[in-house]
Amino acid sequence: MRAQPEEQPMRGDRGSGLVAGLALLFAFTFLGLVWLARDVDRGISNRSAAHSIAFQAARSGAQAAEIADLRTGSTIVVDPNLARAAVLETVSALLSSYGLDGSVTAIDIVGDRVSVTVSVTDAGTQVTGVGTVRAERAP
User: Fold this and answer.
1) pTM for this prediction
2) What are the angstrom distances between the C-alpha of 125 and each of 16, 85, 98, 101?
C-alpha cells in the first residue's frame, strides 16, 4: 500500500490574506472618494446658494429707489432705510427656504448701487456670497 502524502493545513489558502487586504484597501479608498465628492459638492452648492441669496437680496434692495427720481429722469438714488429692510427680509426668507444657517455680513448702498455680502454656515464650514445690483429705469 502506498503512503498518502501528509496534508498541509490551509495549503489552498495561500494569498487569500493579500486578496482580502486589497479588497479592503479598495473599499476604503472608494468610500473615501465618495465622501470627498459629497463634501466638495456640498461646499460648491453652499457657495452657489450664498451668491444667489446675496444677488436676490441686492436686487430687492435696489428696488427701493426713490420714486420721484424714477419719474423725473434725474439721478436715481436708493433709499438706504427701505433698501436695508428689503435686504434683511429677503435674506431671511431665502435662507429659510434653502434650509441654511447664515447672515448678512455687509450691506453697502451708494447712490443707485446696492451690494450685499451673505455668509452661509453648514457643517462647520462658512462660505461667503456677494451680490451687487444697480437700480435703473425701465426703457
Assistant:
1) 0.68
2) 43, 27, 16, 11
